[in-house]
Write a structure and sequence with these properties.
About 40% of the residues lie in helices and about 15% in strands. By secondary structure, it is an alpha/beta fold. The chain folds into two domains: about 280 residues, Carbamate kinase; about 90 residues, Roll (Archaeosine Trna-guanine Transglycosylase, Chain: A, domain 4). It has an eight-stranded mixed sheet with strand order 3-4-2-1-5-7-8-6, with helices on both faces. It is globular, with a radius of gyration of 23 Å. The structure holds glutamic acid. The site of glutamic acid has 14 residues, from α4 and β4.
Length: about 400
């Protein structure tokens, strides 16, 4: 395993004068994935504090320019194994979990400290594969991240290694970061790696290879390049990065692989650093709406009155007050069909309440929801971001 070095940005590690891409410049919500080898010095097992400070500097710059930034960071196991003196060899699963439990404290404190220096608040989010697959937990995680972003905090996500056993874990943060990006409809996912992009053959193999600057579709050829380019430098290597790209592209998120071995790696992207862009065929909103409209089987329907129909056509959310009847058997987050007074399908959306609760609040004012249900909930029954209208 080659030790990742930290260098400062110089003309040598960016392509000559290449301008940054609009996919990067115009991104409003960015997820940045940071691999262990960038953050933790392999020989000493210590955190690379200077590098982390340079990253926090870049993140603060983005946040001050109005962007939402979420970090997905590895490094817990790498830090913890040193603290527990587990040596350099392969760890058993339970040792990795113990190391992560110890290292995660240091990792989270390090992020807290570097962001505090920029008057930003870091928030720790630990997720498992199940949290991103199971609807209710997914919605809760998404809501937490949204709430943090709304107050300009920086969510720092890692896998919850303690409870993530072999069969139910990501094991790599490449795919986890793509799921997070998809969950929060990020428009750009940056994989900071120890390699500066996808190559047609592994740069170390001796075979002539070239960097692939742009990928629009994950073809068998692209997968073959990734298979060949597997590297010991990170847990996932290129294979999991291509898996991440599949998730990102289908969610309308552009993804970029670039080198994180330089200080200020995000500023380097501004300066046109060498990288591979994976370009999504649509934006996250369109991809999400397509998913709601076409991929999900509706579990029920909501009949609405003429006033609500008018409000929906004007781009508003569906409030309980405008709903006259709820049919079917649905849970919070399920897809439902929205029908007009005459039964016509007006659209589809993800409902914010389960059928039993919905039945109690339909026809009522949103401000009365807490009193009726005994707990606070969303003002909307179907939020406009979670809705696709079939006619305009
Ligand atoms: N969750 C692991 C950690 O923080 C890392 C997984 C990965 O290397 O992608 O150490």
């Amino acid at each position: 395993m080659t030790k990742a070095r930290t260098k400062t940005v110089s003309p040598h590690n960016r392509s000559a004068g290449a301008p940054s891409r609009p996919e990067w410049r115009n991104a409003r919500r960015v997820v940045v994935k940071i691999g262990s080898s960038l953050l933790v010095d392999r020989a000493s097992g210590q955190l690379k504090a200077g590098w982390l400070e340079s990253l926090a500097d870049d993140v603060a710059h983005l946040v001050h320019h109005g962007k939402d930034v979420v970090i997905v960071s590895s490094g817990a196991i790498a830090l913890g194994r040193n603290m527990l003196a587990f040596g350099k060899g392969a760890l058993a699963l339970e040792q990795s979990q113990a190391a992560a439990a110890v290292g995660q404290i240091s990792l989270a404190s390090a992020y807290q400290a570097v962001f505090k220096a920029h008057e930003l608040t870091a928030a720790q989010i630990l997720l498992t594969l199940g949290d991103t697959e199971e609807r209710r937990r997914y919605l809760n995680a998404r809501q937490t991240i949204e709430t943090l972003l709304a107050v300009h905090a920086i969510p720092v996500v890692n896998e919850n290694d303690t409870v993530a056993t072999a069969e139910i874990r990501y094991g790599d943060n490449d795919r986890l970061s793509a799921r997070v990006a998809s969950m929060i409809s990020a428009d750009c996912l940056v994989l900071l790696s120890d390699i500066d992009g996808l190559y047609t053959a592994p740069p170390s193999s001796g075979v002539a290879s070239a960097l692939v600057p742009e990928v629009r579709q994950i073809t068998p050829e692209i997968e073959a390049m990734a298979g060949a380019a597997g590297t010991a430098l990170s847990r996932g290597g290129m294979v999991t990065k291509i898996e991440a790209a599949k998730i990102a592209l289908s969610s309308g998120t552009n993804m970029v692989i670039t080198s994180g071995t330089v200080e200020h790696p995000l500023r380097a992207l501004d300066l046109g650093a060498t990288c591979t862009w994976f370009l999504a065929p649509s934006d996250p909103v369109t991809a999400r709406k397509r998913w709601i409209a076409g991929q999900l089987e509706p579990k029920g329907s909501l009949h609405i009155d003429a006033g609500a129909e008018k409000a929906l056509l004007a781009g508003k959310s569906l409030l309980p007050a405008g709903v006259t009847k709820a049919e079917g058997s649905f849970e919070r987050g399920d897809a439902v069909v929205i029908r007009g007074a005459d039964g016509r399908e007006l659209g589809r959306g993800l409902v914010a309440y389960a059928r039993t609760d919905a039945a109690r609040i339909i026809g009522k004012k949103s401000r009365d929801i807490a009193a009726i249900l005994g707990h606070e909930g969303r003002a909307e029954l179907v939020h406009r971001d979670d809705m696709v209208l079939s006619r305009f």
